[in-house]
Design a protein that fits this description.
By secondary structure, the chain is α/β, with parallel strands linked by helices. It has 19 helices and 27 strands. Bound molecules: 5'-O-[(S)-butoxy(hydroxy)phosphoryl]adenosine.
Length: 599
């Protein structure tokens, strides 16, 4: 006899936390939001207390905090109580290695339980965690480990072999390598230790470090137009903004099952894949695998995901696969969908409505801002194509720029704001707020340059309509955005120039229907080398090997006369305009000869 069909339970109606934008915004204060959290007994603040221990103390330790879906089908769960214990063990391991307040622990791993234990265990210890994306090649790994003076690295034997071993001699600060899932390999790795053995031997009961709200907690490297990656330093106090936005923007409620698809190697994956949802006591789904259309729909269905935070590139891929792929899945429990990282096309917002019965809510923020700054909210009208309005506690404005893309200043040094509706300006935010970066690591001047007075300049261009909705226009600089990841052209160019054939290189983003942009590099060859298809493929391979697939150029073109300014800087803007057949704009700084040489 067949089982009777059990009809789906009617979904409880969940009223959004943010019901009336203007009223909540008007009544909001960061002090009040701080009061939604516990704090430490001595007045301090530690992310792990708010994300983990607090729930255990309140009798909710048996709730699943993280549910890991393994690539090979093996799933694991960690309850809040287990997470408290595991992170205490990890903190004790660090103590045993002599790692304490402010020391830097790096992670280079896929989305496996040990990564999450390492992130939170490091914060529990009062040390600083710096995640590296596992699709980085040895070059980005070296740069970041060097700049951040990483003393401990948590990784797997296979990632170590491929990404760290080639550059190990160049990172002398690295003392210990904690290998996840790899006992036997540890002996061959300088400073190598078997993480599982260390955790098993460690003490499970240690308290959270007595950090203050201003103690550094996370270090996230991000890319600029020139020079080395910038290390954005975030503090424990950021948790106030994480928690607030998790409630008001992601609308997390106690019983939610939340899936943030971002990797903790990027800021979204730590802020909203770990910290923010755990402060709300929800269950987080973590999938080890990369995007796969049917797998994703199965996860949404089987895990009974209620709130889903993902990215435009992913949504575009799902959309391309066709709405009929959703049809066989019961996704009625999905209550709220949000997206971040790159422009969200209005078609995708509307497609969400068709495919899931829910529109996609665009949110905007950056590594530097630490938390969502501009957003669309459940229960509030959406204008498809708009990033929405600033979150409570955040004041956003547009700053006018001069012909050199520098912010215009009033005679007393303050910013000149764009006040008319629908006029472009540089999106700027009034500091401070709890999750604002506190520094670019070791680069005070670079940090200072990001501000005009108390206004932080984001580097993005935007417009604001007459009702206060913000609309993204584009990056105000040469940084490339591919599949939601920021890529510094300088990093790409520097790596290519390590190849003996390359005299000069210029990297730009070219439009791609799925990833938004992909990296294309233009290369001028040294005299002894001839352009050939073979060399082109070799350079593409060289780029991938050095930089890893997340950063490397997808395409390379040879061009002997790269356009340069008179001071010798490659004009990526012009390379891009020529590549795309766009107006070439102001050429007054172009080096005299190259204009002629191009003809
Ligand atoms: C840059 C920040 C923090 C999220 C992960 C990326 C672009 C982000 C949007 C959006 C258009 C967006 C901006 C921003 N961006 N969100 N909703 N619409 N563009 O963090 O790597 O620091 O990148 O991503 O250009 O400045 P990130």
């Amino acid at each position: 006899m067949a089982w009777a069909v059990i009809p789906p339970e009617p979904q409880p109606v969940v009223a959004p936390h943010l019901t009336d934008y203007s009223t909540i915004r008007a009544g909001f204060s960061w002090d009040a939001a701080r009061g939604w959290l516990d704090g430490l007994p001595d007045g301090g603040l530690n992310i792990v207390h708010e994300a983990v221990d607090r729930h255990v103390a309140q009798g909710r330790g048996a709730r699943v905090a993280l549910r890991f879906l393994g690539e090979g089908g093996v799933d694991r769960e960690l309850t809040y109580a287990e997470l408290a214990e595991q992170t205490a063990r990890f903190a004790d391991v660090l103590a045993g290695l002599g790692i304490g307040r402010g020391d830097r622990v790096f992670g280079l791993m896929g989305r496996l339980p040990d990564l999450y234990v390492a992130i939170l265990g490091t914060l529990r210890r009062g040390a600083v965690f710096c995640p590296l994306f596992s699709a980085f090649g040895p070059e980005p790994v070296r740069q970041r480990l060097q700049l951040g003076h990483g003393r401990v690295l948590v990784t797997t034997p296979s990632l170590y072999r491929r990404k760290v071993a080639p550059i190990r001699d160049e990172v002398p600060d690295l003392e210990a390598v904690l290998l996840s899932g790899g006992g036997p390999g540890a002996a061959d790795v300088p400073g190598g230790r078997d993480l599982a053995a260390l955790l098993a031997a460690a003490s499970p009961g240690g308290a959270v470090a007595a950090t203050t709200a201003e103690d550094p907690a996370l270090l996230h490297f991000t890319s600029g137009t020139t020079g080395r990656p910038k290390g954005a330093v975030h503090v424990h106090g950021a948790v106030v903004a994480h928690h607030m936005t998790a409630r008001y923007v992601l609308d997390l409620h106690d019983d939610d099952v939340f899936w943030c698809t971002a990797d903790p190697g990027w800021v979204t994956g730590t802020s909203y894949g770990v910290v923010a949802p755990l402060t709300c006591g929800v269950t987080c789904v973590v999938d080890e695998a990369e995007l796969d259309v049917d797998r994703w729909y199965r996860i949404l269905e089987e895990q009974r995901v209620t709130v889903w935070y993902t990215a435009p590139t992913a949504l575009r891929m799902l959309m391309k696969a066709g709405v009929e792929r959703v049809a066989g899945h019961d996704l009625s429990h999905v209550r709220h969908i949000a997206s971040v990282g790159e422009p969200l096309n209005p078609e995708v917002v509307v497609w969400g409505q068709e495919a899931f019965g829910r529109p996609v809510h665009d949110t905007w923020w950056q590594t530097e801002t630490g938390a969502i700054m501009i957003a669309n909210y459940p229960g509030v009208e959406i204008r498809p194509g708009s990033m929405g309005r600033p979150v409570p506690g955040i004041e956003a404005a547009l700053v006018a720029r001069d012909a050199d893309a520098k912010p215009l200043r009033t005679p007393d040094g303050g910013p000149v704001f764009v006040t008319d509706p629908d006029v472009e300006g540089e999106l700027s935010l009034r500091a401070p707020w709890p999750s604002m970066m506190r520094a670019y690591l070791d680069e005070p001047e670079r940090y200072a340059k990001a501000f005009v007075g108390e206004w932080y300049l984001t580097g993005d261009l935007a417009r604001r309509d007459a009702d206060g909705w913000f609309w993204f226009v584009g990056r105000g600089d040469d940084v490339i955005k591919s599949a939601g990841h920021l890529i510094g052209p300088f990093e790409v160019e520097s790596a290519l120039m390590e190849h003996p054939a390359v005299a000069e290189a210029g990297a730009i983003g070219v439009p791609d229907p799925m990833a938004g942009e992909v990296v294309k590099a233009f290369v001028a060859l040294r005299p002894a080398y001839q352009a050939s298809d073979e060399l082109r493929l070799e350079l593409i391979g060289f780029g991938r090997k050095r930089l890893g697939p997340a950063v490397a150029p997808r395409d390379i073109a040879f061009q002997q006369d790269l356009p340069k300014t008179r001071s010798g800087k490659i004009m990526r803007r012009l390379l891009k305009a020529r590549e795309l057949g766009l107006p070439e704009g102001d050429l007054s700084t172009l080096e005299g000869t190259s204009e002629g040489a191009r003809q």
